[in-house]
Amino acid sequence: MKRHVDFLAWLHLAWGVIFLLVALAGGAIAAGALAIATGASPVAVSSPMAARLTAFTVLILSGLALLWAALHLWLGRALRAYRPWARTLALGLAVVNMVLLPFGTALGAYTCWVLLKDEGRNVFHA
After folding, report:
1. What is the DSSP secondary structure assignment for residue 117, as one 8-state letter?
2. Neighbours of 109 (CB within 10 A)
3. Is the bond into 42 cis (omega within 30 degrees of 0)?
4. What's CA 80's distance to the chain center, in Å?
5. Distance (Å, rounded) from C-alpha 16 to C-alpha 31?
6. Per-residue confidence of the chain (126 residues) as pLDDT tens digits?
7. CA–CA separation, 103 vs 105, rounded Å?
8. What is the number of helices (H) and of strands (E) in the chain?
9. Best exposed site among 9, 16, 50, 76 by fewest CB in 10 Å?
């Protein structure tokens, strides 16, 4: 079962990297929207307020993605070290990941399968 826990740790690390890329892309989009709102170009933007609102919204979502990435990267490292609290945190995040179709659902289901079995539980108590 250690093999499954190690694979689960790598999946959490990969999920964290994916969300890190999402956060970086969202930051670039927010910067572009802010540039449109504040730029003085010959092309008139119909509503600079809409561009600012878009930049603010995407920046907030990027911050959440960055937080989600950091949490999964931290969790992946803790799962690789077989820390007992990492099992509890992974199960908690699995519930939230279930909403993120389709890959989050698969990650959440696999997390529950690995960590709720007696063999998976014993890996963290040994």
Report:
1. S
2. 13
3. no
4. 18
5. 22
6. 899 999 999 999 999 999 999 999 999 999 998 988 887 665 566 778 888 999 999 999 999 999 999 999 999 999 999 999 999 999 999 999 999 999 999 999 999 999 999 999 999 986
7. 5
8. 5, 0
9. 50
